[in-house]
Amino acid sequence: MINNKLDIKLKQNLIVTQSQILSLKLLEMNQIELKEYLINEYESNPILKKQELEKINLQSIKTKHISNKTNMDEQNNTLDYAIYYDKNIEIELLFQLDVTSFSNKQIEIMKYLIGLLDDKGFFKYDLKDISQLTNYNLKELKDCLEILKQLEPEGIFSENPEQCLIYQYNKHWQTDDEINILIKNNLQDLLLRNVTKINKQTSIKQEKIREVIDKISDLTPYPFYNKADSQPEYIIPDILVSRINNVWKIELNDTFVDEYTYDDYYLSLIQKAQDEELKKYLNINLERARFAIESIKKRRNTILKIVKNILDRQENYFLKNQPLKPMTLSDIANDLDISESTVSRAVKCKYMQYKKMYLLKELFSNKVNAQGNSSKEVKNIIKNIIDSENKKSPYSDLEIKDIVLNQGIKISRRTVTKYRESMDILNSSKRKK
C-alpha cells in the first residue's frame, strides 16, 4: 500500500514538472512559434475549438508593372513604372513606424510610395507628377516621403547611389558640403580609388580623399543590396507599443494567433458518455485544453507586465533619446516579484515595436561604475570615438579611456579593451591605415 501511494505521488510530481516545463517553453516562444504550437494542439485535441477573429483586410497597393521603361501617359492619366513590389517590403518598412501617430490617409500615401520603389530601393519619380495623377496634394506627398526616408535600410527612397551614400555618410560622420559634392560628382573615381585624378579635378587634399574612400567602402550604394536575388527577410514584432496621452499602450502582436475555447459538444459528451475509456480520453484532453488556454493567458499577462516595467524604467531613453539606464533581469524580477529565469524566458528572442524595432534583451545592461553609467552607453561612446578617429593614428585603449574620462565617465583601460573586443573592433595597431 505504501509503495502504491509513493508511486502515485511520484507520478503526480512528474506531471507537475512536465506542465511547468511546457509552461516555461510557451513563455519563451515568439508569436510564430506560439501559433505553430496551438495549431498542433488544436489538430490533436477534440476539446479545443477555434474561435476565428475578424481579420483586417488591408487594401493592397495598385501597381502597374512594365519591364523596360518609365513614362507618363497624360492622355490616359496613368503612371507607368517598373517596380520591385513585395508585400514583405511594405511590412518591413511600416513596422518601423508608430502607425498610431499617423492618419489613415498618411498610411495610405506611404503604402503607395513604397509601391513605387525599384528593385534597388530607389525612388525615381517626380512628386508633382504623382500629385497630378492622384488625389494626394504635393505637401502630403513631400511630408510622407520625408518620413519614409528616415527608415532602414539607410538611404531608402534615395534617387540614386550617390544620394544613398551621401545620406549614409552624413548620418555616420559629420556633414560636410565639400564631401557631399565630391561623392555626387566623382563617385566612379572614388570607387576606383583614383586619388590623384580627383585631387587634380577638385583640389581636395589627397589625405581627405583617401579618408572618404575608406569610409564609403563600409557603406552600401543600394538600399536593397542583393535583396532582389534573395528571399526577403523581415522581423515580426511580438509586442506593439504606442504612447497615448502620456500613457504607454502595450499589446501583444498576436492578432494572427487564433483564439481558442472549449467545444461545447465534447464538454457535454464528457457528462453523457457511458464508455469509461471514452470519458477518460476526453478528460485527459480537457486538461490539456485547459492548460493550453490558461498558459496562453498567463504568458500574455507576464510579458505585458515585464514590458511595462521596462518602459517605465527606460522612459527617458524612449521619449528623450537619453542613454539606456543600467537594468538587469534581477531588477525586473524584484519589481514584479517573479523569478529571474521567468524574466529571461519572457524576453528571449522577442522584438518590441515602438517607432522602430527593439530586441528586448538589448535593452538590458549592467552598471559599469559608481556613477551609474550602463555598459551599452559606454560601448556607444567608445564606438563613436573610434569611428571619428584619424585612421592614420588611431587611439590606443588608454587614450580612449582618457577621452571617456574627459566626458565625465570613469572607466578603466581594461574595460575599454573588453568592450572594444566585444564589438569586434580591432586594436589600434590593426586599425591603422
Could you characterize what this model shows?
This protein is of the alpha+beta class and 433 residues long. It folds into 4 domains: 88-151, Arc Repressor Mutant, subunit A; 157-230, no CATH class; 239-363, no CATH class; 367-430, Homeodomain-like (Arc Repressor Mutant, subunit A, Orthogonal Bundle), CATH 1.10.10. Helices cover 53% and strands 8% of the residues. The chain has helices at 2-28, 31-44, 87-94, 104-114, 127-133, 138-149, 161-172, 177-191, 195-202, 206-216, 264-272, 276-313, 315-320, 329-336, 340-347, 375-387, 397-406, 413-422, 428-431; strands at residues 48-51, 71-73, 78-80, 239-244, 247-252, 259-262, 351-354, 356-359. The strands form 3 sheets. A 4-stranded mixed sheet has the order 5-4-7-8, with helices on one face. A hairpin with a 4-residue loop joins strand 2 and strand 3. Helix 1 (2-28) crosses helix 12 (276-313) and helix 11 (264-272) packs across helix 12 (276-313). The chain is globular and about 100 Å long. Mean pLDDT is 79; it is low at 9-16, 53-85 and 227-233.
> Tally of extended strands?
8
Strand order, biggest sheet?
A: 5-4-7-8
The percent range for helix content is 40-55%
Cα distance spanning the termini: 82 Å
Structural class assignment = alpha+beta
**Low-pLDDT sequence parts:** 9-16, 53-85, 227-233
Q: What form results from the Cα inertia axes? A: globular
Biggest pleated sheet: 4 strands, mixed
Count of individual helical segments? 19
Question: Descriptors for this entry?
Answer:
433 residues, alpha+beta, Arc Repressor Mutant, subunit A, 4 domains, 4-stranded mixed beta sheet, two-stranded antiparallel sheet, sigma factor, DNA-binding transcription activator activity
